[in-house]
């Protein structure tokens, strides 16, 4: 995965993941062009999509027909002395039995992105000086 500036003086990034490409940018009120979601929005979208996929995979393994699910994720970025806060809303069809809904809620919190954000994170960073084509 990599992000590459699309042009000097712009926050817009071309993000490549495997054979997929998307754009990340900052909103106009933060000096961007709003050409794509911000990196923080992509993080929240990763949490929402991972949560939904985790519930659907679990239901599939159990042989449960759960219908369409939707996960909404909002977040409040961290500020000095306060952690980033994520709020997830799981929208599950109303006809599902309570025991399945409760199990899906437990499984939702076990998605890989949730576990990553909830656990200890370590970073390794290095700088490579290269000549980039303009």
Automatic annotation (TrEMBL):
SUPFAM superfamilies: OsmC-like (SSF82784)
Domain of life: Bacteria
Any matching Pfam family: OsmC
The protein's name in its UniProt record: Uncharacterized protein
Region Disordered, residue ranges: 1-39
